Amino acid sequence: MRVELLLRLRADRARQMAEAAGRPLTVAEAARNLAVLARRAGWEEQVLSIALNAADDPGLRASSSGAAERGLLIQSAAYSAARLGDREGMRELTDEAAAIAKELGGTTALRDHGGGFSPATFQLHGISAEFSTGDPSAALAAARALPPQSLPSVERRARYYTDVAAALAQRGRRDECVRALLAAEHQAPQETHSRPVVRYLISGLLLPGRTTPELRALAARALP
């Protein structure tokens, strides 16, 4: 409870300062950062509330940057709905974010968000959301619709391959899973090695059956 109270105090302080300055984008970005902290604490219901309340700000509808910030907030809420097992809510929010991405067209840069908002980054979130609802087949279908080279950074491409690997592992497609993990490592080695999901996947692949030189070498690089 103490951590939750601290998060709320930080959010209220940032929101009050931004509102006093008349900056809806700053208010929204403060809310998005708070949602990230809440997700790390495992408070997905709070993420939904924070993100959707911020996305409702009429001040975000006056510019492409505001629309892009709304898109980020709504796709974050969609991911939380997925993690809560609300597939219908996830799809509804995903459709809303998709409409924003389509209206904006290409990438909309944002000062406080390096990747901005684009159809490609939105689709990347969709892969994670589909997997989080327990539907790896839908996650893989979403991945097939997204060329990884369209993503704006090596970190996002690494996340793409990591999400694909997780879906493949759940489908029992071991060799393809290893290839996806190697592709993630090729894009961003340090980030890939540090991700708990990657270590979990590798450990799981090592336990049940045959291993390959590629898998053993990847384990040597990634596992502590």
Explain what you see.
Helices cover 75% and strands 4% of the residues. It has twelve helices and two strands, in the order αααααββααααααα. A two-stranded antiparallel ribbon has the order 1-2. Helix 1 runs antiparallel to helix 2 and helix 6 packs parallel to helix 8.
Write the layout of secondary structure elements.
Blueprint (H helix, E strand, L loop, with lengths): L1 H19 L3 H17 L3 H12 L8 H20 L3 H18 L3 E3 L2 E5 L1 H14 L3 H9 L9 H17 L3 H14 L1 H6 L1 H11 L6 H10 L2
Antiparallel strand pairs: 1-2
Structure at a glance:
With about 220 residues, the chain is mainly α.
- Percentage of residues in strands: under 5%
Order of helices and strands: HHHHHEEHHHHHHH
Biggest sheet layout: 2 strands, antiparallel
> How many E strands?
2
Number of helices: 12
Class per helix and strand makeup: mainly alpha
Shape: elongated
Order of strands side by side in the largest beta sheet?
A: 1-2
Round the mean pLDDT to the nearest integer and report it: 85
Gap between N and C termini: 32 Å
Determine the fraction of residues in helical runs and give it as a percent range.
over 70%
Task: Fill in the keyword field for this structure.
12 helices; two-stranded antiparallel ribbon; 224 residues; mainly alpha
